[in-house]
C-alpha cells in the first residue's frame, strides 16, 4: 500500500484546528512527568532458541515454577562498583527473541524465561541495568548505569565490558561484533527501555562486541540509534531523525520532528529498526496538560516516504492535521516493532489506571484498538514477536512494583507472569 506523504523540512503546510475546543495546557517539570513514563526494548531478528537455565531468586514472584534450576551467574568483578545515575525501576526493559525465550532487565538485574511463561532471576548485577539488546538466542547486552554487560551463552554467564570514555546509555548491535551506541550526555532518564540523554550525548561504534568503542561525528544531541546491517542505520536526536548508508560515518536528515519548538526541554526521539530499511519513530514531548502528554508516531517502510501514524488526542492543533488518528493513551507508552509493516503501541493512562494496546498494520495505515491492561499506571517496555503474541512491563497501581503481562490473542486478554518490587527510595 502506498504510504501517504507528510510534510517534510522546508515545506509549509496549512493546518486546520482539530476542534474548536482547546484544552488548557499546563507545563509540568520533567521531574513530575518522569514517573509516568516507561521504557522499551529494541527489537531484533529472532533465531532458534537456546536453552535458558536461570536460577530462582527469593522475593521474586513468578506465575509458576522456574524453567530449570541452575547456579546463579557470578557477578562480574568491578574494582569500584558505582550505582549513581538515573533512577531505574525493578523492571525497566524487555526483549523476546522467540515466543518462548526472552530477557527483562531492571534495577535488580536480569530475568529470563525459557518457555515464555515463567521468569526467574538470571543475573544479579552490581548496578542497575536497563536496555536489553540480543542479536540471537545466545548473544546479548544489557546497559548499566556505568558499565555494559555481555553474555555469549544465553545469559548463563555475564561479563562487564571495559568502560567506554563515558557511560553508554543505549546500544544496538547488527552482529556479534558490530554495534553502535550513545554515550555520556546530560539529564539522563530511563524511558521505555532506553536510557536517554536529553542533550550532549556522543555517538559511538564498536567492532569487537563492545570491548572497545570509538566516537563518530553525528548531528547534535543523539539519543537513540539502530542499524539493520553494516551500512544502513538511523539516528534519533532531540529534533530529528537521520539516516546513514555508510555505517554511521555520515548522516542526512530524513524527518524533522514537527514539535521540536513546542517544548524547550524533555523531548525524546525513540526509534526501532526493521529490516531491510524500515523505521518506526515515537516522538515524545516534554510538556503536559491535565492528564495528557504529547506524542507522535511515524513510520517508513522504504527508508524515504514517511507516514504520520498517530498522535496523542490533545496534542497542539498547529502540530498535526486534524485527520491524524488518535494514539492509544493520554501519555506515551511503550512500543514494539514486529516487522517493517506492523508495530504495537501501548498508551499509558495514569488517570484511568489502564494501559491500552493499539496495533498499527500496513505500514501504519491501519490502526486497531485491541484491549486494555488493567491496574497498571505506566509501562516500562514491550516486546511482541507477532501481532498476537507479546509481553509488556507495567508499573502496578496497587503496589510499589513492576509486572510482566503477556497476551496470546493480540491484546484482548492479558496474564500476569512475574511481579517484582521496586527498590526503596
How would you portray this structure in words?
The protein is mainly β. The chain has one domain: YVTN repeat-like/Quinoprotein amine dehydrogenase (Methylamine Dehydrogenase, Chain H, 7 Propeller), CATH 2.130.10.10. It contains 1 helix and 31 strands. The strands form 8 sheets. The chain has a 5-stranded antiparallel sheet with strand order 2-31-30-29-28, with no helix packed on it. The protein is globular. Residues 1-83 have low confidence and may be disordered.
Q: Which strand order does the major sheet show?
A: 2-31-30-29-28
Q: Estimate nothing, just give the exact number of structural domains.
A: 1
Distance between the amino and carboxyl termini:
50 Å
Number of strands: 31
